[in-house]
Amino acid sequence: MPSTPVFRAVNFELYVKPNTVTMICGVLAFSTCVGYIAYMNLKEDSKKETYVTLDLDGKTTVRPKTSRWD
């Protein structure tokens, strides 16, 4: 089936053979990013809503976040 140069330019993936090295690097990079996001969401510290305050003595304390609506 004949094709035009415009069709070949628009559908570049149809005429190029797959590059396995590039695909493997892309899959590893994507998997690493998804794994890191999942790790950050499951990490225990991220579920605790706390912040650090500085007392008048100069000491730092960790307090839970509170809402004015509570």
From TrEMBL:
PANTHER family documented for this protein: SMALL INTEGRAL MEMBRANE PROTEIN 8 (PTHR14274)
Membrane-spanning segments: 20-39
Main location (coarse class): membrane
Membrane topology: Single-pass membrane protein
Protein name: Small integral membrane protein 8
UniProtKB keywords: Membrane, Transmembrane, Transmembrane helix
UniProt similarity note: Belongs to the SMIM8 family.
Gene Ontology cellular-component terms listed: membrane
One Pfam family recorded for the sequence: DUF4500
Xref: InterPro entries: UPF0708
Subcellular location(s) per record: Membrane
